């Protein structure tokens, strides 16, 4: 089981304020996960990844990370379900954060049990560090003022192409119902994270079309 070890070599510093922490990222997008991995590395934290609710639950049954960041839209359900479970778990994870590109997801995440919310695209190292540090006990934070790098994080473009290839695989053969809606939401989130303005409008139209078709199917 992961336990935060704060010896002389593992205490947080001004330059690496998350040193000694382990962050579990529950995220289905490789591009978004790559951004958080870079932020963790710059901050001194270790990172583990789960790409769905089932994988996250298996991980949490064995390990206890210092912080968990949960994407609200996952292939096997809503991140809100995992947030609710972690809120009442004992012992409780010190920091529970949610992330999404949907501006309406923040209220849902906080109501479900998240301590804070990270809006996509994730590019600010300062916002990432502050969201975690704000929920940590004082003895786990670096002492004194700290200077934060202002450089924006740039994830690997290959990870973005991997996300697009993954979406293409999910659409061949064309799935139905909730699976199609998931692919549309996944693509919308990936486009927002990568700030791909060309991909955004077609995906938005696809989501609208899917919503109409699903409503028609229910009516039938």
UniProtKB/TrEMBL annotation:
Q: Which Pfam families match?
A: Response_reg
Per UniProt, residues of the Response regulatory domain are: 22-135
Domain of life according to the entry? Bacteria
State which residue ranges cross the membrane: none
Q: Which UniProt keywords apply?
A: Phosphoprotein
* Coiled-coil parts of chain: none
The keyword Phosphoprotein belongs to this UniProt entry's keyword annotation? yes
Indicate where the modification 4-aspartylphosphate is found in the sequence.
71
| SMART domains the record matches | REC
Signal peptide positions (record): none
Q: InterPro entries, per this entry?
A: Bact_response_regulator (IPR050595), CheY-like_superfamily (IPR011006), Sig_transdc_resp-reg_receiver (IPR001789)
Quote the PROSITE patterns the UniProt record gives. RESPONSE_REGULATORY
Q: What is this protein called?
A: Response regulator
Q: Which organism is it from?
A: Litorisediminicola beolgyonensis
């Amino acid at each position: 089981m992961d336990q935060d070890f704060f010896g002389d070599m593992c205490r947080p510093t001004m330059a690496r304020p998350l040193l000694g922490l382990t962050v579990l990222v529950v995220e289905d997008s490789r591009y978004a996960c790559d951004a958080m991995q870079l932020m963790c590395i710059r901050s001194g934290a270790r990172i583990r990844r789960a790409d769905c609710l089932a994988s996250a639950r298996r991980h949490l049954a064995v390990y206890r990370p210092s912080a968990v960041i949960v994407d609200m839209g996952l292939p096997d359900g809503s991140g809100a379900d995992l947030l609710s479970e972690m809120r009442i778990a004992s012992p409780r994870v010190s920091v529970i954060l949610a992330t999404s590109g949907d501006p309406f997801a923040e209220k849902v995440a906080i109501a479900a049990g998240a301590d804070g919310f990270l809006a996509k695209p994730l590019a600010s190292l300062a916002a990432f560090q502050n969201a975690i540090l704000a929920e940590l006990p004082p003895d786990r934070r670096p002492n004194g003022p700290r200077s934060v790098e202002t450089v924006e994080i740039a994830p690997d473009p290959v990870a973005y192409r991997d996300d697009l290839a993954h979406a293409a695989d999910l659409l061949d053969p064309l799935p139905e119902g909730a699976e199609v809606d998931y692919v549309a939401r996944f693509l919308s989130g990936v486009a927002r994270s990568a700030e791909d303005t060309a991909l955004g409008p077609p995906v938005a139209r696809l989501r609208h079309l899917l919503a109409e078709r699903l409503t028609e199917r229910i009516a039938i």
